[in-house]
Amino acid sequence: MLETRIQQHFIDSADLKYQSAQALSKPISAAVSAILACVTSGGKVLACGNGGSAADAQHFAAEFVGRFERERPELAAVALTTDSSIITAIANDYQFNAIFSKQVRALGQPGDVLLAISTSGNSANVIAAVEAAHEREMTVVALTGRQGGRMADLLRETDVHICVPSDRTARIQEVHLLSLHCICDGVDTQLLGEQESPT
What pLDDT does 195 receive? Predict the structure, then answer.
């Protein structure tokens, strides 16, 4: 019984990834282009999200500042989820919804990219970060699910929306991680040229 349930998780994840391959390849490619334009002109990526999405933001920043699968010069990315003093000060002195937006206003510059991750698209603090990014003339790359939630209505034509076609949080997160890996690989490929896919 338990083994069957486990196998079903793998099947469901694989099915959604297969479905998403066609649905998301265009917006992921657009995200690569936006992020590449940003970092090659001296800009940076600011990443944010809550819970598992916070972990994804940190994962992305680690791949960018360190490396993905190939050696290359460091790329500028900051996860806005990691400084506990900043986060708790803002949450205490203002409100929790401001923990990312105040950092975006402090650190963001025109031409930078905000990587905004929310499985529902309804996270109030991520939505506030999107609004702050627009104030700073930044491009937003939004990773969502569930039809994009309230965040979808805020995005501009110059932004990129990677919306996973699912309502299940775990499945959305799994595709978000794959999408982030695709972005990292796409940026590296544009910077370094094609390389055979690792086996």
Answer: 72
Tokens linked to 178: 């794959």
CA 103 to chain centre: 16
Please tell me whether residue 77 adopts helix, strand or coil conformation: strand
How many CB atoms within 10 Å of residue 142? 26
Helix (H) or strand (E) holding 64: helix 52-65
pTM above 0.90, yes or no: yes
Query: Three-state SS string across 152-172, please?
Result: HHHCCCCCEEEECCCCCHHHH
CA angle 37, 41, 43 (to 5 degrees): 90
Tokens 């501009």 sit on residue: 156
Q: How far apart are CA 113 and CA 120, in angstroms?
A: 20
Q: Chunked in runs of 10, what are the mean pLDDT values of the chain (199 residues)?
A: 94 95 96 97 98 98 96 96 98 98 98 98 98 98 96 97 96 98 97 73
Tell me how far CA of residue 139 lies from CA of 130, 133, 145, in angstroms: 9, 7, 19
Beta bridge partners of 47: 79, 115
Residue 39, SS3? helix
